[in-house]
Structures are given as structure tokens and as C-alpha cells.
């Protein structure tokens, strides 16, 4: 039966996956090792997240990226000569990755996270290039730029870059461990965590003084991932962080929304050593503790919120917000719940959300949409309630903010 | 409540409201079937997939069956209500000096319903007892279903018997054997407790 | 004309419990598997939304998740002398449809059959003599309990069953069912926290010297991660179990135990809203070539495959065999033919108790939360001085307090008016019931075949069910009802009311969706449709998995045994058939 040959193919794939963890040493490298490392760089960089449509051909582009300035569509990066990057040189590729300048000097929009990739080593970029050259060319013509005027003029990016972008290599900190530096290299470079998790200036650049301090995009809050108490990773151990990156789930939380895709496509496929390095680095980033005091339990909003919670939420999240590992996120003493900005929480209550699925945590539980059942005030009150119970403290949620997001979700933006 | 009928004509609606208000009369335990919306509930059911039997097997041939074989008629519930209410009206107008069901006194209404239930009313081709059973079944469905279907206004029936409604978590009460459950009902549509007081 | 699709290794008809388990097991062996499911895709958060899932009218009364008779029904009659007529609405039993099948909306009682159930004919003949079985068509399964033990274990651990073992390695365990066959280890989770009524029931039963124990439940007593890595929640006892999907991942189903892993596999595909018309055989009629099905747009497709697994509801497995001409249809006059043979059901009875001074809060409930007395089930008791074989489990499992369906009032109460209302109000919290779930033993005249008159929406004949309760089963049920009466008296209610089982079987009031037989397993191709590995005797690349394989039904819910049979058949395919495709048992 034909299944035997497929078994053999599957076994070969498993073997190559194992070799991913072996970093080629500079001395006796083989082209194969460099391609394997290049493939791993694509994992670290989550290239598939933007350049592969779900169910579509790998790296053939087509994922739409809504930005505050309009929609960009990720291009085809397979070696197809006409519709991909088949006619690019390695230098073109390095310039795109590290300077934001594409083939023929075209300026790239920073939705392509070159402000982070500029920290990648030349060698990793070269390996990634070598890997991309091995892909099956796919003919898929993409019109990347669907931004409205004036942002559709790519020359605008020259001004943006002058204001916001400093090309430059990653600088290791000799006073820190190799592990810390490896984590910093991934987080600042290929992993481009700041693209989502750092607050943005009005021009869409990362605010450098609030590195990884949390940001809202596409009606999701990418939370603080510094070691800040309450809002950040303060309550998480290094093992909690690595479990989250590996499986999408730990004793506190389950990845959902855009982070679910990142876990599925990227962090769950990283090596254990790299996940740990990331955790060590993030846990060392100082962050300011949220100093909110809990809203009083006899507040009318808290009382209404308690009733909404008991009748809509407790059957999964528990009578005391304790949740259930790998299934229902814990709400008590939860960083995500205590973010100053409640955008993600409102969004999840209104629209529902499905958690990440990984080999190690395959359940993919989902939160149902409750927009049809709860009005704006009820959503606000139940969120105020969970944000101020069981050891949590965070600002009350205003019902007009729920209304705004409800409208925005309805219009599909 | 009389506005917005989907299926029944005004006369049918009036008669049906009078019927459901005798099946479930207003008294000190609860509002009656009419105020609870049972007729409106039936109206909406008749306008949907229950009323037209579109989910059932409706191919012929239609043959008289044994009791163990269930309903074998070709009439849908909607057709049975239309023909049944007309037959009741014609019967009563003849027997009760030109008064329809809604015009009878409560005592007369009860007497007629008892006779219909006991198969003592001759409605011609229509099986009066089966019709009574259909109306009774649908009335009870309306009275005890979630209020979102138009009956059981303000969860009146649930409050009456002590059913807490669309709740999903009784873990905090399971060990409290023989103790009353402390919370009132909630509907799929929500609960007054979910809104701020004062 | 059907358009032909690329070949698959395996096509599975139906993606419920057995289809999901077989698909998971066979994809683990690297096979390329497609499941064709005639109902819709269903997923917890979208289809069993916690905000609206507790809707009694929609789900329990209008039966939104079930197979609609417009799609397929059966004709029924009690004896061959009657004319079968279509069940225009389902009543007595309610087949499922859609991904997860009836496993989406079951209660969750998860039993093992007794060792003596598997070799029933040999066992009873040896103990009571052949004459005792003369009116029945009882058969051995061709497989033993010992062979099935590890398959039962795997299903219970897949599901996270909550219960208390009564017999581990032939050591009787206090608190469990002392009559059960030996198991190698305890249930994966402890029993659920007991509600009030079953607690009183158990006390009364113990006072009579009986052996009550917590019913093994697929409503989970605790959070659980199954061997596939899938996480499940703790049951919250909402009382919306049977006829409902579970909103919080706390009832075992294909959705909560298998599909998250299965759907990630690149060698698996599910096609929903697609109804298989028939299995296609080659010119010899001895090999299946695949199936033909109609998709949701009415387009007809031929799906070639090396193996066909019938994993639909048991009744539909039997009908698909008949429509596909796999095996010969049973003839009750001659006793020849095997497909449709030994249709059996469940012989149930009940008792309702009314109290003045108790509050049972009937809505605090779960589908399988309760207590069982098995002292009178199967052959756990001596039938030597009795006039029947078989028995019944006595179950006190108050599953819900949903008021359209649950409004107990004493006999003599009017059905409407103020007196009705007062009685309804006065008794709602103060009554509970328990019931006997009795064995249903095969008889020569109880069978399935194709109806000569009525057709489905594709013009195919409906299946015809000819069934009435055998006299043996009625005598059994009455005897067990007497035992229930003793328990009822010991509970000292104000009043109790018995509902005894009598002839004839009525297709209207709900009784049980435990329809068994029609494609039964056994050791002899003259009296069974499939061999001990659930492989068709006639077309060896067809396996037929489900309660259709039960030669007769025990006094227990079938799902535990159905799930175990799925693992059992999967093992036979993986370990034997794939190495050497062909008949696994020589006729």
C-alpha cells in the first residue's frame, strides 16, 4: 500500500526537524546545514505568518495586513521570477531585510519588520536567503500596496526611516550570559516581538522608551511582556514563559488571537534552548508595576458584573476565576486581565476567540461570542469585575469603549 | 400582545388566546396563558418549521395506522390549527347561540374543553381529542419554554415552580442537599440582575 | 452521473464516536483517510454556545441536533402480519446526525458489558439448559470480555470516565460494582459529587442489602487531559446534557476527545453535509471499490478507496449494507440471511416518587450523575427458579429539571386548569424517579429489512423495523419492577407510581436510543454478518462498527461497548489486516 512510502517520507521529515537544533559551526559547514539554519530563521521570524495564506502555498504571499494607515498585502517570496523574488540577488535580499530597501531601490513599508531584522546577523540572513532559494517557485501575483494616498507613495518611507529607523547590528552585552544575549538577539531581531508588543508613535514606529510595554493593533492588545508586576510577566516563572511559547498554554493562560498564530507557526517550533533564552531575557526586562487599587466590590458596576460573571463565565473560568490549565484561562491574578488597556478583553467577550493549537496542547478550546447576549454596559461591568477580583486590580472598563469596539468589529476593521 | 401575528387571523388569535387562558388560567400562582404569551408562542411556531412539518417525513401513501405507529395524517400542525379552530367556531356558533369560544363564559369554556378532551365533541372529520392534545401540548411548551420564544413572559412559569432557567453552573449547590436554591431564573435573553441597580 | 475522485486508502462513513476513533487509529498507521458525514460540522464554542445552549424547546423538544425524519426515517410495525408505516416523526428513539453523531448529545453513561454477556448463549445454556432459551435467538459474540478489556480501558481513558471500579484484577473494590468483570485499573477520574435523590436511593438500596454504586459517567468529575493530550473541563451539573451539546468541554464526545488531534493531521479529511448512497462493489460482489455520495450541493461523487468502514449509527450501518448488497438480507420465515438479523432494543420501566418534606432541586443534574444497582442485571443473580433470562440495571440518575418535559404530578391530577397548576407547583421540587434499563434479547421475529413501499429523498427504500418486546423480556421487566417497588417503599415517599413495561412496543413516546443488531458479530457466517473483528464475512474490505454488531442487547447503555469495539476493530485492521489484506477469520 502507498502508505508505506508516506511513512518513510514522514520519518525523513522528523529527522530533519531534529537537526534544526544543531547550529552549524563556522568551520566545516555544509550547504545543507546552512539551508537548515535558514529554514530555522524563517521559523524564528515567523515568515509564514505573513507570507503564507492559511491553506495556501508556502511563502507565496497574499496575507492581508491591516495597518492604521491602510491595508498591505504580504508579497510572494518564493523564487518565482515574475511574481516572487526569483530575480533578486542576495544583496537585494539583505538590503530588504536590514535596510528596508527592496529590489530596484523600492522602499518597503515597516509592516515588513526590517527595523527588527536589521539586528539579524549577516550570516543568518544569508542562510535564510539560501533556504528561500530552495523553495518551489509559486506563481502568485500579489499587489502588495493597497494603502490610500498619501501612504501609497513609497517615497514617504524615506522620511519615515529618517525619523524612526536606525539600521544596525545586534550588540551583545558582555556583562550578560550567552543565554541572555541569545534571547535578546531573537527578541530584538528575527523574532521582531516589538512589532506588536511595543507601543507605537503616531507614525507607526516603536516607542523606544517603552520597549515591549504593550500595544494595541487590529483591535487586539499585545500585552506588556517585560517583567512588570501585574501587567507583565512578573508572576510568570521562566518555565511558565517557555511552556507558553512551546505549547501556547501554561498554568495562567492560553494564547489566542494573533499570538495563537505566532505560537503555532513560530515559537512552538523553536528549540527548547531558544525558548528558554527568550524567557531569560524577557524576565530580565524591567517594567513598571501597575499601581491600580481594586474597584470596591459594592460598586454598582461590580455588583452587576458579578451577576453577569456567575451566569455567563463561571461554568468555564471557575467560581473564583481559577480557570483550568490548557483549557480555560485563569482570570485570577492574571497579567492579561490586568492590562491597563482592556481592548483584547472586550474583543474576546464580544467576538469570541479560539486558542492556539500545538502538538503539545492540541485542544484549541474557544470562547464563544457573547455580543448578542450582553449589552455594552454588561460587557464593561463584567470586565471591571474580573479585573478587580481575586487579587486583580485594574481600571474600570467604560461602556462607551465597548460600544466603540463593537462598532469597529461589526464594520470588520 | 395582539399586534404582530405571523400566522393566525384575528378571529383565530382571539379564540386561541381564550383557550390558552383556560388551559393555564390566571390565579394567585401565576399569570394566565394569554398574558404569558402562549398564543403568540404558538403563532410563531406555526409560522416556522414546526408548523409546516418541513423536518418530518411527509411522503405518501398516507394510511390509517396503529396507535403504536404514531401520527399518520397528512395535515401539518398549521393546517390542523386552521381547520381545528374553524371547526370549533362552527360547532360552538351552532350549539351556543352564535357565540364563538371567546364569547363564552369561563365556565362554559371549561366545560367545552373538558368535552373536547374526552372526545365528546363531534367536529366532523376532525379528531377533537387529538386537536385538544395538540393545543395543550403547544400551550405548555409556550408556558415553560424560554421567554425568547414569546411565551413564559417574565419567566412566570419558572418563578412559579422554582426552575432557575438557563443557568450553567450549579457546582456551588450540588452538596447542599435538601436546601432551596437561592437564585431566581435567568433567560437566554439575559437577567435583570445583569444591569446596574439605581 | 457520479464524478470520480482520487483514491484514498480508507473511506469512513459517518464521523461520530466510532468514525473518529477509527480515523485517529488508522491515520496513526499512516493511512490516508477520508470521513464522509451526512450532517453538519459541529464545534463547541460555535454550535454549543454557552449563552444559548440551554434551550429546552430548541434542543430537547424540537430536537435541533438530531437526524430529521425528512432526511431519513424508518417504517415500523410490531409483527410481520401488520403493514409497516413510516415514523413520520421520531419518538421512541432519536438517531443523531452531524460530526460527533449521537455522542454529541448523549447523557454519558459509560458501561462495560458483563463477561457473561459476551458468551451469552453458551453461558445460559450451561447454567439453565437450552430449553430456557427456546423462544429467543440469543447468540455468542465471538469475542470474549477478556479480549475486550484493554479496548474498554482505552475508551474509558480517552473519555476521562468518572467512576469507581468494583473489580480490579479479580479483587472486589468497596464502593464499586461488585458484579463487574475484572478490570486492570480504576477509572481515570473519581465519581462525581452526588446529588440528593441518588444519595437517598443508595441509602435505601443498601438498607435492603443491595449494592448501589456511582454510575460511570462521561460527565467529568474533574479537569482531565486525555492520552491524546486533549484537555477537558469539570462538569458544572447544568442539567442540559442529553439532547444538548456540552458548552464547557466537560462531556466526552468526539469533539472533546479526538477531533482536535485528528483534524490537525494532513492524512485526514472530513467531508460534511455529504450523504453516502451506497458502497460500490466490484463485479464479483466480493470487494468494495469505495462509496458514492451526494454533497451539500446535490452533486454526486464517487470516492474510490481500498477499505470502507461503516461507522454510521447502527441502524444506518445495516441499511447501507442492504442498499449496497453486502451480505444477504435476513428472512424471519426461513431464518436465512444475516443482514437485519437480531434487531434488539431496551426493555425499560420506571417508578416516580412523591414526597412532602424534601427538596431535590431536580435542575442540579448531569446526564450520568447518579447511582446504579446491578444486583438484578444480566446474570448477576440466579435465574434457576425464575421464568425468564436477562435482567436490568436499576438507575437513579435524575438528568434534568427542564420543565417542558419534567413536570411530575400524581395520578388523578387534571392536565390543565388551576388544579393542574397547583399540583405542578407543589411537586416540581419534591419528586424524583428511578428506572430499570432492561436487557433486550433477540427473537426470530424481530428484525430489519427494506420497506417495499416508502422511499427516502433519494428514492432509496426506507428500512423497515419489525419489533415487539419478547415475552421473556416482559416477564423480566415485571420481575425487576417488583424489586424497584421494594426500593421505592424503603424510601418512604408520600406516594409512588410505577410505569411497568407492557406490550406492544410503541414508536411514539421516548424510550431509548439503544437500537442494536442488524449487522451482528459472531463466529458463524450463517448467523452473523461480520466476524469477531467486525469485518464483513461477504466483503472483507468492509468493516461495520457500532451497536449494529451486538447479537442482543444487555441491560446497559451501549456506548462504552461501542467505543471499545471501535478500538478492537482498529487494532485488528492495524495489526492484522494491513499486513495481509483479506478475511481475518476463515469461514
State the distance separating the first and last CA atoms of chain A.
49 Å
From the helix content, strand content and strand pairing of chain A, which structural class follows?
mainly alpha
The helix count of chain C comes to 13
Largest interface: B-C, 61 and 67 residues
- Describe the largest sheet of chain C: 8 strands, mixed
Strand content of chain A: under 5%
Cα end-to-end separation of chain C: 37 Å
Descriptive account of the structure:
The complex is a heterotrimer of chains A (413), B (198) and C (587). Chain A is mostly helical and 413 residues long. Chain A folds into three domains: 22-164; 178-283, Cytochrome Bc1 Complex, Chain D, domain 2, CATH 1.10.760; 300-410, Cytochrome Bc1 Complex, Chain D, domain 2. Chain A is built from 17 helices and seven strands. Chain A is globular. The model of chain A is unreliable at 1-28 (pLDDT under 50). In chain B, helix 1 (10-23) packs across helix 3 and helix 1 packs across helix 5. The longest helix of chain B has 19 residues, at 77-95. Chain C has a single domain (3-577), classed as FAD/NAD(P)-binding domain (3-Layer(bba) Sandwich), CATH 3.50.50.60. In chain C, a hairpin with a 7-residue loop joins strand 4 and strand 5. Chain C has 587 residues and is α/β, with parallel strands linked by helices. The interface between A and C is medium-sized, with 33 and 33 residues.
List the helices and strands and how they pair.
The complex is a heterotrimer of chains A (413), B (198) and C (587).
Chain A: H1 3-19, H2 31-44, H3 47-51, E1 64-67, E2 70-73, H4 90-99, H5 114-117, H6 122-133, E3 145-146, H7 156-164, H8 178-188, H9 194-197, E4 215-217, E5 220-222, H10 238-247, H11 258-265, H12 272-283, H13 300-312, H14 314-317, H15 343-351, E6 353-354, E7 366-367, H16 376-387, H17 399-410
Antiparallel strand pairs in A: 1-2, 2-3, 4-5, 6-7
Helix pairs in contact in A: 2-6, 4-6, 8-12, 10-12, 13-16, 15-17, 16-17
Chain B: H1 10-23, H2 33-36, H3 38-46, H4 77-95, H5 106-117, H6 128-144, H7 156-161
Chain C: E1 3-4, E2 8-13, H1 17-28, E3 33-36, H2 44-47, H3 56-61, E4 74-77, E5 85-86, H4 115-118, H5 120-128, H6 145-159, E6 167-168, E7 171-172, H7 196-207, E8 213-214, E9 224-225, E10 231-232, H8 254-257, H9 259-262, E11 268-271, E12 275-281, E13 288-294, E14 300-310, H10 314-324, E15 347-354, E16 371-373, E17 392-396, H11 417-427, E18 431-438, E19 447-455, E20 461-466, H12 471-490, E21 495-499, E22 542-544, H13 559-577
Parallel strand pairs in C: 1-14, 2-3, 2-14, 3-11, 4-20, 14-22
Antiparallel strand pairs in C: 4-5, 6-7, 8-16, 9-10, 12-13, 13-14, 15-18, 15-21, 16-17, 17-18, 19-20
Amino acid at each position: 500500500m502507498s502508505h508505506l512510502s508516506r511513512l518513510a517520507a514522514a520519518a525523513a521529515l522528523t529527522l530533519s526537524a531534529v537537526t534544526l537544533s544543531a547550529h552549524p559551526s563556522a568551520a566545516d559547514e555544509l550547504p545543507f546545514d546552512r539551508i537548515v539554519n535558514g529554514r530555522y530563521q524563517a521559523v524564528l521570524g515567523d515568515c509564514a505568518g505573513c507570507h503564507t495564506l492559511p491553506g495556501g502555498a508556502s511563502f507565496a504571499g497574499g496575507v492581508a495586513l491591516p495597518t492604521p494607515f491602510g491595508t498591505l498585502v504580504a508579497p510572494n517570496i518564493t523564487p518565482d521570477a515574475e511574481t516572487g523574488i526569483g530575480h533578486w540577488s542576495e544583496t537585494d535580499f539583505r538590503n530588504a531585510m536590514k535596510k528596508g530597501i527592496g529590489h530596484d531601490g523600492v522602499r518597503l513599508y515597516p509592516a515588513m519588520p526590517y527595523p527588527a531584522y536589521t539586528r539579524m546577523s549577516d550570516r543568518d540572513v544569508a542562510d535564510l536567503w539560501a533556504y528561500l532559494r530552495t523553495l518551489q517557485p509559486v506563481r502568485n501575483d500579489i499587489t502588495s500596496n493597497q494603502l490610500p494616498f498619501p501612504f501609497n507613495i513609497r517615497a514617504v518611507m524615506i522620511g519615515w526611516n529618517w525619523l524612526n529607523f536606525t539600521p544596525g547590528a545586534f550588540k551583545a552585552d558582555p556583562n550578560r550570559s550567552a543565554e541572555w544575549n541569545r534571547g535578546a538577539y531573537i527578541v530584538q531581531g528575527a523574532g521582531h516581538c516589538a512589532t506588536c508588543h511595543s507601543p507605537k508613535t503616531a507614525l507607526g514606529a516603536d516607542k523606544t522608551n517603552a520597549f515591549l510595554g504593550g500595544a494595541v493593533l487590529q483591535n487586539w492588545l499585545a500585552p506588556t511582556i517585560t517583567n512588570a508586576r501585574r501587567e507583565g510577566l512578573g508572576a510568570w516563572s521562566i518555565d511558565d514563559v517557555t511552556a507558553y511559547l512551546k505549547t501556547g498554554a501554561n498554568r495562567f493562560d492560553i494564547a489566542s488571537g494573533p499570538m495563537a498564530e505566532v505560537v503555532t507557526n513560530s515559537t512552538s517550533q523553536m528549540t527548547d534552548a531558544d525558548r528558554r533564552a527568550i524567557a531569560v531575557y524577557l524576565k530580565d526586562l524591567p517594567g513598571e508595576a501597575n499601581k491600580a487599587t481594586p474597584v470596591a466590590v459594592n460598586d454598582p458596576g461590580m455588583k452587576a458584573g458579578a451577576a453577569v460573571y456567575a451566569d455567563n463565565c463561571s461554568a468555564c473560568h471557575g467560581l473564583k476565576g481559577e480557570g483550568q490549565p490548557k483549557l480555560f484561562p485563569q482570570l485570577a491574578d492574571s497579567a492579561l486581565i490586568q492590562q491597563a488597556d482592556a481592548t483584547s478583553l472586550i474583543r474576546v467577550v464580544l467576538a469570541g476567540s479560539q486558542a492556539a493549537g500545538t502538538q503539545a496542547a492540541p485542544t484549541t478550546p474557544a470562547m464563544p461570542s457573547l455580543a448578542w447576549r450582553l449589552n455594552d454596559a454588561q460587557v464593561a461591568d463584567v470586565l471591571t469585575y474580573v479585573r478587580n477580583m481575586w487579587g486583580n486590580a485594574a481600571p474600570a472598563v467604560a461602556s462607551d469603549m465597548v460600544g466603540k469596539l463593537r462598532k469597529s468589529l461589526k464594520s470588520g476593521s | 400582545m395582539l399586534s404582530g401575528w405571523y400566522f393566525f387571523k384575528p378571529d383565530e388569535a382571539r379564540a386561541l388566546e381564550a383557550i390558552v387562558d383556560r388551559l393555564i388560567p390566571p390565579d394567585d400562582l401565576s399569570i394566565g396563558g394569554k398574558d404569558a404569551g402562549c398564543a403568540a408562542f404558538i403563532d410563531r411556531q406555526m409560522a416556522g418549521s414546526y408548523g409546516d412539518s418541513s423536518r418530518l417525513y411527509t411522503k405518501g401513501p398516507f394510511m390509517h395506522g396503529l396507535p403504536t405507529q404514531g401520527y399518520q395524517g397528512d395535515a401539518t400542525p398549521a393546517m390542523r390549527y386552521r381547520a381545528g379552530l374553524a371547526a370549533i367556531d362552527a360547532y360552538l356558533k351552532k350549539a351556543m347561540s352564535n357565540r364563538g369560544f371567546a364569547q363564552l363564559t369561563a365556565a362554559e369554556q371549561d366545560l367545552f374543553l373538558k368535552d373536547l378532551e374526552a372526545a365528546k365533541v363531534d367536529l366532523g372529520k376532525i379528531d377533537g381529542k387529538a386537536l385538544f392534545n395538540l393545543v395543550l401540548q403547544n400551550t405548555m411548551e409556550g408556558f415553560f419554554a424560554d421567554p425568547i420564544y414569546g411565551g413564559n413572559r417574565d419567566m412566570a412559569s419558572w418563578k412559579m415552580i422554582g426552575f432557575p432557567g438557563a443557568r450553567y453552573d450549579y457546582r456551588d449547590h450540588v452538596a447542599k442537599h435538601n436546601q432551596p436554591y437561592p437564585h431566581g431564573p435567568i433567560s437566554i435573553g439575559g437577567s435583570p440582575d445583569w444591569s446596574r441597580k439605581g | 452521473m457520479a464524478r470520480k475522485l482520487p483514491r484514498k486508502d480508507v473511506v469512513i462513513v459517518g464521523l461520530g464516536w466510532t468514525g473518529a476513533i477509527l480515523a485517529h487509529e488508522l491515520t496513526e498507521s499512516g493511512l490516508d483517510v477520508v470521513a464522509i458525514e451526512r450532517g453538519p460540522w459541529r464545534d463547541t464554542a460555535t454550535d454549543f454556545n454557552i449563552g444559548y445552549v440551554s434551550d429546552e424547546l430548541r434542543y430537547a423538544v424540537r430536537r435541533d441536533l438530531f437526524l430529521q425524519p425528512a432526511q431519513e426515517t424508518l417504517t415500523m410495525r410490531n409483527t410481520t402480519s401488520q403493514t409497516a408505516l413510516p415514523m413520520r416523526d421520531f419518538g421512541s428513539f432519536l438517531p443523531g446526525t452531524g460530526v460527533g453523531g449521537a455522542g454529541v448529545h448523549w447523557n454519558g453513561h459509560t458501561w462495560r458489558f458483563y463477561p457473561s454477556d459476551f458468551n451469552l448463549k453458551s453461558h445460559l445454556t450451561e447454567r439453565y439448559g437450552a430449553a430456557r432459551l427456546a423462544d429467543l435467538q440469543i447468540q455468542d459474540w465471538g469475542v470474549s470480555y477478556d479480549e475486550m478489556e484493554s479496548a474498554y480501558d482505552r475508551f474509558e481513558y480517552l473519555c476521562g470516565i468518572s467512576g469507581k471500579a468494583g473489580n480490579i484484577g479479580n479483587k472486589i473494590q468497596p464502593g464499586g460494582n461488585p458484579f463487574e468483570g475484572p478490570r486492570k485499573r480504576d477509572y481515570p477520574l473519581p465519581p462525581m459529587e452526588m446529588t440528593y435523590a441518588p444519595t437517598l436511593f443508595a441509602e435505601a438500596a443498601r438498607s435492603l442489602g443491595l449494592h448501589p454504586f456511582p454510575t460511570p459517567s462521561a460527565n467529568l468529575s474533574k479537569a482531565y487531559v486525555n492520552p491524546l493530550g486533549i484537555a477537558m473541563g469539570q462538569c458544572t451539573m447544568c442539567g442540559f446534557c442529553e439532547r444538548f451539546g456540552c458548552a464547557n468541554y466537560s462531556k466526552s464526545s468526539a469533539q472533546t476527545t479526538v477531533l482536535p488531534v485528528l483534524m490537525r493531521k494532513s492524512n485526514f479529511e472530513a467531508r460534511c453535509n455529504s450523504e453516502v448512497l451506497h458502497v460500490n462493489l466490484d463485479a464479483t460482489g466480493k470487494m468494495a471499490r469505495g462509496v458514492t455520495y451526494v454533497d451539500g450541493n446535490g452533486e454526486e461523487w464517487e470516492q474510490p478507496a481500498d477499505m470502507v468502514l461503516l461507522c454510521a449509527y447502527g441502524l444506518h450501518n445495516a441499511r447501507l449494507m442492504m442498499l449496497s448488497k453486502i451480505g444477504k438480507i435476513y428472512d424471519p420465515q426461513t431464518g436465512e440471511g444475516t443482514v437485519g438479523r437480531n434487531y434488539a432494543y431496551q426493555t425499560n420501566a420506571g417508578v416516580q416518587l412523591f414526597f412532602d418534606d424534601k427538596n431535590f432541586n431536580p435542575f442540579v443534574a448531569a446526564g450520568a450523575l447518579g447511582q446504579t444497582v446491578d444486583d438484578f442485571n444480566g446474570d448477576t443473580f440466579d435465574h434457576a427458579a425464575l421464568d425468564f433470562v436477562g435482567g436490568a440495571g436499576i438507575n437513579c440518575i435524575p438528568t434534568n429539571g427542564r420543565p417542558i418535559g419534567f413536570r411530575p404530578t400524581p395520578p388523578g391530577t387534571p392536565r390543565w386548569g388551576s388544579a393542574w397548576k397547583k399540583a405542578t407547583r407543589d411537586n416540581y421540587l419534591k419528586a424524583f424517579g428511578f428506572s430499570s434499563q432492561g436487557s433486550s434479547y433477540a427473537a426470530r421475529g424481530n428484525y430489519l429489512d427494506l420497506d417495499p413501499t416508502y422511499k427516502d429523498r433519494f428514492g432509496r427504500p426506507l428500512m423497515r423495523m419489525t419489533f415487539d418486546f419478547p415475552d421473556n423480556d416482559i416477564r423480566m421487566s415485571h420481575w425487576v419492577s417488583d424489586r424497584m417497588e421494594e426500593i421505592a417503599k424503603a424510601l418512604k415517599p408520600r406516594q409512588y407510581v410505577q410505569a411497568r413495561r407492557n406490550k406492544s412496543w410503541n414508536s411514539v413516546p421516548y424510550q431509548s436510543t439503544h437500537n442494536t443488531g442488524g449487522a451482528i458479530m459472531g463466529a458463524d457466517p450463517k448467523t452473523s454478518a461480520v466476524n469477531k473483528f467486525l469485518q464483513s464475512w461477504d466483503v472483507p474490505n468492509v468493516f461495520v462498527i457500532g451497536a449494529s454488531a451486538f447479537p442482543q442487547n444487555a441491560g446497559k447503555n451501549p456506548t462504552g461497548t461501542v467505543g471499545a469495539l471501535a478500538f478492537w476493530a482498529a487494532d485488528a485492521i492495524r495489526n492484522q489486516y494491513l499486513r495481509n489484506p483479506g478475511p481475518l477469520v476463515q469461514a
